[in-house]
Amino acid sequence: MKLRIVLIALGIALAGGGYSVIDLSMTRASAPADPVTFSDQVVRIFQRNCQTCHHPGDIAPFSLMTYEEAAPWADSIRSKTASRTMPPWKPVGGCGEFANTRGLTDEEIATIGEWVATGALEGNPADLPEPLVFDDGWKLGVPDVELRTVQTGYRVPASATSDIYRCFTIPTNFDADRFITAVEVAPSNRKIVHHVILYIDTTGVSVSLDQQDPGPGYTSFGGPGFATVGTLGGWAPGAPPQVLRDGTGYLVPKGARIVAQVHYKPNGQDEVDTTSIALKFARSPVYQDVIILPIINQDFTIPANARDFPVTASFTLPPLVDVKIEYVAPHMHLLGREMQITARNLVTGERKCLIYIDDWDSHWQGSYRYVEPLAIPGATVFELTARYDNSELNHNQPSIPPVDVSWGEKTTDEMCIGFLGLTIDAEHREPSAPILSEVRVQGSKLVVEGADIRPGSLITVDGELVRDTRVKSRRKALSKSAWASAIPAGVTVRIQVLNPDGAASPEFLFAR
Ligand code: HEC
Asked: Which of 119, 339, 386, 505 could cysteine-pair with 434, CB 3.0–4.6 Å?
C-alpha cells in the first residue's frame, strides 16, 4: 500500500505536576528505628532519580552527589519532591505508558520528608553506595557518523537574559538515502542546554537562513523555518540515546542536512557549547521508516485575557491504514497550559489516551517514547485538545497587557501540534540482497566483488566499517587504504558489504 502522510516538524516536551500531601506522622508509625540518613537511604533515591541532571556540569543548578552538596538544599528538596515538581516529568499517569518515566514513589517522597524533618543527617559514610560515574563518552559506542553543531562552539553571553533557540544546519554528505537506527545527542556544555530537536532538511533553506543571521546558525523559536521531511527525534536533559525498534529506521535522504535546534537557557555566565550528534547506521534490514504525523491546528486566535481557551485539532487515519505509534511530542509555546491527545476508533468507538499534560511548561520540551509501540487500527481519529491561558495570571505571559495571539514562529505567537512518530504496518520495503563472490588485494586496494552492492554501501571487516569504501558498480566496491589497518597480514577476517538499507551480505572469510 502506498501512503505518504504529510510530514512536517517535530516539537518536544518534559517535567512534573500534581500534588500529594505527605503526612509525616504516618511515616514513623513503627517504633523509632534508626533515623533516615543521607548515606544510607537518601543518596540511593538521588542516584535513581536525580543525579543524571544534578551532578557537576549538568543542567540542574546544584549537585546532589555528596552530602555536603545536598544538605544546604534540604528544605527545597523536601518541597519540590512533595509537590512532585522534581524530578521533572510532565505526562499525567494513566494516559500512555512511557519508557524512562521519571517520578518518586510515595514512599520515597516520605523518606525524603522524614530525612529533612529529622535534621537532614549525614549518617555513616560507610553506608554510602558506589558513587555513580558520569562520563561524557558516547553511550551508544563508537558512532558511525558524528556531527557537530559548530566547530568553534556557540557563545551564550552572560548578558543574555532570555532563552535562545538556535538552529545549526549540518551537512550529512551521505552519498545515498540511508537508514539511521540509533541517535545520541551530547551537548558539550550541559549547564545551558535545555533541549535539542533534530530536523531533516532536503530543501537547503536552512543554509540561506543561516547566511541571513550573523554568527553560527540562526534563531528560530518555533519550527526550524522550512518544511521538513522528518526528524531524528529530540533530546532533553537526562534522556537516554534513542534506539529504534528492529526493522524500523529514520530515512535520511541523500544530500540532506540535519538541522539541530538547540534551546539554550542563559545562566548569567559566559558559556560556550558545541552539541554533538552520534548516528548509527542500520545493521539489519529496515522494512518501515519512522515518520512524523503532526496533529495540527494553525488557524486559531486566542483572545487577549482568555484564561482557559481551547484549541482542537484532529486527523483521521483512512480505513485499513494500521499504524504503530512509537512516540508522541506535544508542542505549544508560552501560553499553553494543557494538551491531551486521544485516539477514537470510528468503527468500535474504542478510545485510547495517548498523552495528557496538565501543567505545560515550554522550558521542558521532550518526546515521549511508549514502552511498547501503540497499535492503532485504520479508521481511527486522533483528537487533540489544547488549552491556553492568555491572561496576565499566566506567569509565562510574554505580552503585558495581553494581546490576541495566533499561530506563528515567534515566542509571542502560539502553536498547537501533537507530533506522532509512527510506522505504517502495510509498509514493507523490500530489502536489498547483497552478496560477495570474491575479495582480493589489487595493488594497494582491497576490492570486493559480488552482486546488489548499492550506492552508499560500506565494506565491513569483523563488523567495523571501512570508511573509505567506494562503490564502483552493483558488482564492485573497493577501499583505497583504510582496509589495510583493519586487516593485519595473515589474520583471517570476516568481510561483508553493508547496504544503506541495512541489508548485509553473508560473511566472506578472507586473509591476505
Ligand atoms: C531531568 C533533569 C532533572 C532531574 C532528573 C532532577 N532535576 Fe531537580 N532541577 C533540574 C533543573 C534544570 C532545575 C532548575 C529549575 C528548572 O529549570 O526547572 C532543578 C531544580 C531543582 C530544585 C530547585 C532548586 C531551587 O532553585 O530551589 C530542587 C530542590 C531539585 N531540583 C531537586 C531535585 C531532586 C530531589 C531530584 C530527584 C528526586 C531532581 N531534582 C531531579 C533538573 C532535574
From this structure: 505
Residue located nearest, by CA, to atom 20 of ligand 1: 60
Provide Rg for the chain, Cα atoms: 26
pLDDT (average), residues 351-370:
91
Residue type, 271: E
Any ligand 1 atom below 6 A from CB of 63: no
Q: For residue 72, give the C-alpha cell.
A: 544546604
Judge whether residue 369 has pLDDT over 60: yes
Give the mean model confidence (pLDDT) for residues 343-351: 97
171 preceded by a cis bond (ω within 30 of 0): no
Average pLDDT of the chain is 91
438: which residues sit within 8 A by CB, 6+ positions away?
447, 448, 449, 450
Burial of residue 442 (CB within 10 Å: 0-12, 13-18, 19+) is exposed
Q: Is 42 in the pocket of ligand 1 (CB under 6 A)?
A: no
Q: Which three cell numbers stand for residue 5?
A: 502522510
pLDDT confidence tier of residue 32, bands split at 50, 70 and 90: low
For residue 484, the model assigns a pLDDT of 94
Region for 18 from its dihedrals, namely left if φ exceeds 0, alpha if ψ lies in -120 to 50, beta otherwise: left
113 lines ligand 1 (CB under 6 A): no
Q: Is the CB of 138 under 6 A from ligand 1?
A: no
Residue 451: all three cell numbers together: 552482486
Separation between Cα atoms, residue 99 and residue 367, nearest integer Å: 11
The residue among 9, 94, 165, 92 whose CA lies nearest residue 339 is: 92
The whole-angstrom separation of Cα 248 and Cα 428 is: 10
Half-sphere exposure of 479 (CA within 13 A, CB side): 25
